[in-house]
Each structure stands twice: as C-alpha cells, then as structure tokens.
Amino acid sequence: MNTKVYFTPGPSELYPTVPVHMHTAMEDKIGSISHRSKQFQEIYAKAESGLRELLQLPDEYEVFFVASATEIWERAIQNNVQRESFHLVNGSFSKRFYETAAELGRETRQHEAPFGQGFDVQRISVPSSAELIALIQNETSSGACMPVDEINQFREKAAADALIYVDAVSSLPYPAFDFAKVDSVYFSVQKCFGLPAGLGVWLVNDRCMAKARSMQESGTSIGSYHTLPALLEKALASQTVETPNVLNIYLLGKVLEDMNRKGVETIRSETEAKATQIYTYLERSAVFSPAVENPKHRSKTTIVANSTISSAEVNKQLAAFDMQVGSGYGKYKEAQIRIANFPTHSPEQVEKLVSKLEELFG
Ligand SMILES: *Cc1c(COP(=O)(O)O)cnc(C)c1O
Prior knowledge:
- This protein has helices at residues 18-27, 38-55, 69-80, 92-103, 148-151, 154-157, 206-217, 228-235, 246-262, 264-284, 311-319, 347-361, and strands at 5-7, 61-66, 84-89, 107-112, 132-136, 138-139, 144-145, 163-167, 184-188, 200-205, 288-290, 302-307, 323-327, 336-340.
- The chain is an alpha/beta fold.
- Strand 6 (138-139) and strand 7 form a beta hairpin.
- The radius of gyration is 20 Å and the shape is globular.
C-alpha cells in the first residue's frame, strides 16, 4: 500500500474524500451507465451547479467538460481566433498555448517575461488587432503568478471585442476572479481539485459563444465535435457530445459538494496561510530560496524554490518519511523543487512537510 503524501504539482494528492466517493461510484456502477441516461444528466447537472456555486459564476457563463486543458488551448484558437492571438509568455505552459496557435496557422504575437518572473502589466500594450488575449494566472513550470488585479487591467488595454482567456489550471478555486473582466477561464481537475487526471473544464461567456457562431457563419472551420455551439447544444441538456469521462464528472460533483460545504472563503484563507508558512521557511532555509523574486508574483498554489541540493536527493530523503515534492520543470529539473499547496493539502500535512524539510536540510 502506498501511504506517501504527494506535494507534486499535478497529478497530486487526491482530495481526502475521493476514496469514499470512488467506492460509492463502484457500488452504484457509475462506469456502466449510459451517458444519455437521466442518471448521467443528474451527475452532469450536479457537477455544473457545484462549480457555479463554488466560483460564483455569473449566468452568462457556460460550463463545458472536455478532455484536458491542452485540448482547451486548441479549441480556444479554433473557435475564437480568426486571424490573430496575443499571448503573455513566462514559462512552459503559457509558451505551449502560444505555439498551439501558431501550429493552427494563426498569426501569433507574444509578450515575454523571463522564466520565474511575473509581468509588468502597466508596460504591456496589447495589439488592437488581437482577437484573443491569453493570460496565465499561475505558471506551474516556474511558480510565477498573475494576481487578479493585474488580470483585470486587460479589458481596457484590449480592443472592445477581444476575448480575454485565463489559464487557471493550477490555481482555481484560489483566485477570486471578476468574471466580468474576463471572457474564459479554464482548468483541469488533477491540480487543485484533487482528482485523477482526464477532465478539462472550460468556462466561456456569451461573447465567446457569439464569436464562434460568427466565425462558423462566415464559413471558417471551427473544428468538429467540440465546437462551442456543439458543446452548448448538449450542455443545455446536461450532456456531452461524446461518451465522456463519466466517473470523473461524478467525482468532481462530489468533491465540489465537499468544497462548498467547507466554503470557498475558508479554502482561500487556508491556502494563503499554508503558502505563508512554506515561503517563510524557504526564506530562512540554508539550501532553499523562493525562485520568484517579487513577492507579489509568488504563486500561492505551486511554490517553486531554488535548491542547492538536487531535487532527486530531496525526494530520496523525503521518501523515508512518506512525502514527495515536485522536481523542477524542464531544465530546472534538479536545480529547483516545486511544492503543491492545493486544497487537498491540510495545514497539518504542510506543517509536517516544512518541519521535515527543515530537519533534513536546514
Ligand atoms: C497542467 C497544466 C496545463 C495542462 O493541463 P492538462 O490537463 O495536462 O492538459 C496547462 N496549463 C497549466 C498552467 C498547467 O499547470
């Protein structure tokens, strides 16, 4: 039996109630029911309403279930960009969205910040021809974040009909977005929702829907089965186009119920308290230091530290105490560690990790 606690930045430790829900799902044979049945429609509706409650999502937003956040990058470009998108890039995930747009033949422009840094938003000018502005709330590869007050400045910088997209894959539900200031937010469930991977959630407003329809009417291809109009048609009947990941939609609905019972404000304040504890340790540590210099741009949910000992050695020693942190990303694999601080990680678990790190490495 594996009794390790995973502080890896996704997949990560499962939300504590998942094993019980998984057990019920097996007893109720959720894996065998038809995705056209009334039972599935109820499962779908529960997940959707749970999410609307947790995020306080306005009515003009739709909730769509797809395969992954990676899929959403591709669908976003196909459905919402006729010619040109503009991307803020400061790490591997934001870069990948930019590359996806180029691979789909769009004109792409980017504003780049060095790996491990946030953006100087005041100095960014958005091209008036950009139809989609890609922001990244939490760059999981580097641990740099974009606070909501910075995200909210883009509506005024962009053309009136430009769509503002926010990658919140490794932070939601922590950031309290002003949904009127953005047009689409997306995430996948194996990060902060503490579920097995294989489900992406795409929130879009009526402006994204209208743009997809007008592209379609003008004769532009907006893809095949996962076009926004096709997703909406099925979503209105609490269904999906294809046979979906029913088990994960079920588990999401259950975990959302648990999270709503706890309350999003409690989740957010716990996240901040645990992050403070981790950063305070990193600041005084002899071997680790926060990788993101500006405290305002330090992620609260994926905390990255420079390390004078290799991440492999850190994890080798932590393994004896049933804990694992993430290695650095890409070329920082050994020189950095990444610590997930997700809603599943209890204050007690974080406390134990920090004191063990301090005991082992100083
Ligand atoms: C993990 C991650 C993705 C990709 O998510 P998938 O579910 O693997 O497609 C995208 N953006 C960010 C910031 C991520 O952390």
